[in-house]
Write a structure and sequence with these properties.
By secondary structure, the chain is α+β, with helices and mostly antiparallel strands. Helices cover about 50% and strands about 30% of the residues. Strands 1-2-3-4 form a four-stranded antiparallel β-sheet. β3 and β4 (about 120-125) form a beta hairpin. α3 runs antiparallel to α5 (about 55-75). The chain is globular, with a radius of gyration of 19 Å. The termini are far apart.
Length: about 140
């Protein structure tokens, strides 16, 4: 009996020690939730940062803005990762294209790890992808690419 309790305790401690979250896990869970219920997805991702999770007015504003966009965009199709950059070991930025029938939205997730756990530091979404595409094309043209 003692051996069983000791084995279970060691297994639990090991799993806790190695279950450090990653930004990929946080974003993946957000995306899965978003597919079913956007409000729950935002509650989850904002909840990874206790200061954001406590800002109920800000959270509700973001949910409302997204519902307004989604009403204009048509059917939701899916997420596509565009890029991800790390700034040192404690900051990470992930940019996703959220595909809708009419046009895409861009989501920018900014994560921060103060101690051991990643948390959402900032989340932006917008529809201004056209402007950036024009800038990229202009840059490529001027640099002979």
């Amino acid at each position: 009996m003692r051996k069983t309790i000791l084995l279970v305790s060691l297994t639990l401690l090991t799993s806790i020690a190695f279950s450090q979250n990653s930004t990929e896990e946080l974003t993946s869970k957000f995306i899965k939730m978003y597919e079913k219920d956007t409000d729950s997805a935002f509650d989850y991702i904002f909840g990874t940062n206790k200061w954001m999770g406590e800002n109920k007015d800000g959270t509700e504003k973001v949910k409302f803005q997204l519902r307004e966009y989604a009403n204009l965009m048509g059917e939701y199709i899916g997420f596509e990762k565009l890029t991800e950059k790390s700034l040192g070991e404690s900051l990470k930025v992930s940019v996703y294209l959220v595909k809708y029938e009419r046009q895409p939205l861009r989501f920018i997730f900014k994560y921060y790890k103060a101690k051991n756990e990643w948390m959402l530091y900032n989340l932006k979404f917008d529809e201004n992808i056209d402007d950036e595409l024009d800038e990229i094309m202009k840059y490529d043209y001027l640099n002979g690419n």
